[in-house]
Amino acid sequence: MSDTALNFSRNERPSALRKIRDVLLSSPVVLLAAVVLAVIVLASVFAQWIVPHDPTRLTPSVRLRAPDGTYWLGTDAYGRDLLSRVIMGGQMSLAIGLTASIVAVGAGLVMGLMAGYVRWLDAVLMRFVDGLMAIPNILLAIAIVALWGAGFWTVLIAITLPEVPRVVRLVRSVVLSAREEPYVEAAIAAGSSTFLIMRRHLLPNTVAPLIVQGTYICASAILVEAILSFLGAGINPETPTWGNIMAEGRLYFQINPGIILWPGLVVSVTILAINLLGDAVRDALDPRMAKRGIDR
Fold this sequence. Notes:
The protein has 296 residues and is an all-alpha fold. Helix content is 75%, strand content 0%. The chain has one domain (27-51, 74-290): MetI-like fold (Orthogonal Bundle), CATH 1.10.3720.
């Protein structure tokens, strides 16, 4: 019996990965999105070694130069290589997106589990969550930055805080449904602790939706960071980000449109790729979506 259970667990573990792989291979669009996103991430991670020029070096003699053999995407108003700055800017933009996603999912998971399982705590937490959700994301982010000043941690908090309530509501809805299942009621009747029930019976039900929600938060965080930087309320202008590059180039758009066009294009492609992959993961992990595919 133990050998059978062991073999079952071994065969069951990679099933989710196989589903995701099948979805990627079955759709050329999703596969292309995965390849493009992988290239952008790798270019950002190894930016120090692949940038053709120093992205912070000021060269007034070549300011606002059009694309040529030396500067493939041209230069900005300070003579800095635009291609190098776009590649280097991906480090900060992707770091903010990934960190905001992890923090929002982690905080929302804990609060959602508590709100969904502990009934008396549900009313208190959800009123706080509803209050946060009543404020538009970008307005709340601007207010936080205006209150505490621009900087990496301030921008990260400003982007992450509005995303937490959405994760809380998602996890809470999953827990409210799962806690009525017979196996949870049996665990309660057996005297299992609240922590054990959450960890063993409720937490596994939230993994698939949280993975999908995390991809959407990552894409949203990259976009909000670009908006804040474009408005002058984001990361320090000395640190290249995709938003900062566009913010610095808005006054010179008619002279050299590429200053805004290229970082804006990278932001759009990155967000589109992340969203496409999020949809693919949802299709792979959600049994209802798989059933719809079979019915077709």
